[in-house]
Amino acid sequence: MKYFIGNWKMFGIPKSISILKKINSFYSIDKNRNKYKVIFTPPFTLLESYSQFFKKKYLSIGSQNCYQKDQFSSNTAAISSYMIKKVGAEYTLIGHSDNRAEGDTDVILKDKIKFALKNNLKVVFCIGENKLEKRKNKTFRVLKKQLKKALERKFNKKKIIVAYEPIWSIGTGRTPKAKELNKTIKFIKKVLKNIFKQNSPAVLYGGSVDEVNVKKFKEIDEIDGFLIGGASKSSKKFIDIIKNYYR
Ligand code: PEP
Question: How far apart are CA 129 and CA 141, in angstroms?
Answer without folding.
Answer: 9
